[in-house]
Design brief:
With 169 residues, the protein is mainly α. The protein has 2 helices and no strands.
Length: 169
């Protein structure tokens, strides 16, 4: 539709009041709403900024604590290894002491057994010697008691000497 008699922009009293209403609303908005809204936004921005700073500080502290914990763990692990090494070393020393003590006791037992064997050997020698003396005396008495000729006496004497010679150790 074409309106030939109407101007492109119509300025009338309504438009004037709308402009004034708009300006009044802008003034009210600026005075009562803009300042409190700006304060709320600034407060919110400050809170967010503080939270970010606190988060950065907490992160830094956490990293420092993490490093400290890691160093403590390494130290604890090192201490544990030293304790294990020390215990192993003490065990090895104790093992060697036990072996030395056992060897010493074995040597004492062997010496004691050797002395006992020596005593028994000497006792047996003495008994054998006494037995041989008795046998010799008995044979001598038999020779004397029997009237033998010289050949018989000499053969008996040779037999006795052979027996005594075989009995020697």
């Amino acid at each position: 539709m074409n309106f030939p008699n109407m101007p492109a922009v119509l300025i009338d009293i309504n438009l004037f009041w709308q402009i004034i209403n708009f300006l009044i609303l802008m003034l009210i908005f600026n005075k009562y709403l803009k300042a409190p809204l700006k304060k709320v936004l600034e407060k919110r921005q400050e809170t967010v900024s503080n939270d970010l700073n606190n988060a950065k500080i907490a992160k830094t502290e956490a990293e420092a604590l993490k490093l400290e914990i890691e160093s403590l763990m390494k130290k604890a692990q090192k201490d544990a290894m030293e304790l294990i090494y020390g215990a192993e070393k003490k065990a090895a020393i104790r093992y060697e002491d036990i072996i030395k003590e056992a060897t010493s006791q074995r040597d004492k037992i062997l010496k004691s057994a050797e002395l006992e064997t020596q005593k028994m050997k000497e006792s047996l020698k003495k008994e054998l010697s006494d037995s041989l003396r008795e046998t010799a005396a008995t044979m001598a008495l038999e020779l004397i008691n029997k009237k033998m000729d010289k050949n018989t006496q000499s053969s008996l004497l040779d037999e006795f000497i052979d027996e005594v010679g075989e009995a020697k150790w």
